[in-house]
Specification:
Elements lengths: L1 H23 L9 E8 L6 H4 L6 E5 L4 E5 L4 E5 L1 E3 L2 E3 L5 E2 L8 H11 L2 E5 L3 E6 L2 E8 L1
Antiparallel strand pairs: 1-2, 1-10, 2-3, 3-4, 4-7, 5-6, 8-9, 9-10
């Protein structure tokens, strides 16, 4: 009986460790490398085309240099890339140009970016930036 109980506990520990490995290391940050163009953002009551009538926001990841840059559809930004497995953060201070921007697009983009805590890349062409379990932003590889 003790042997059976010990075996059950051991198997459950092994299963627990394997599931942690599968969820924590399943995303290769090098998939982020390159330029990504925003095609969806969650939350605003204004249509996507109304937020970004002239130019869509872009993010450029340079994983080797641990840098992120891009534009908000109006202003340019750059800063450190904070990524660990599929966890990502855009809360570190970033350098940003200060042009006056029409509409709410830039504010919506930046406020949503601050909420992101994970990401996923599908088929090498679609980047989802996720808050909790909700895809808040979706980008297409340029």
């Amino acid at each position: 009986m003790k042997y059976l109980l010990f075996s059950a506990v051991l198997l459950s520990c092994i299963a627990c460790n394997n599931s942690k490995k599968a969820t924590s290391g399943n995303t290769d940050p090098s998939q982020l490398d390159g330029t990504w163009v925003l095609n969806y953002i969650s939350g605003p009551r204004i249509a996507f085309e109304g937020l970004y009538p002239d130019k869509k926001p872009q993010i450029v990841f340079t994983v080797a240099d641990k840098r992120v840059s891009g534009n908000t559809s109006c202003n340019s930004f750059s800063g450190p890339l904070v990524v660990d497995g599929n966890k990502i953060s855009f809360n570190e201070p970033m350098a940003m140009t200060k042009m006056a921007c029409p509409g709410e697009g830039e504010t919506v983009f930046l406020e949503t970016l601050k909420k992101i805590n994970t990401y996923s890349v599908t088929d090498g062409n679609t980047l989802n930036l996720i808050m909790g379990d909700i895809a808040m932003m979706q980008f297409t590889k340029k």
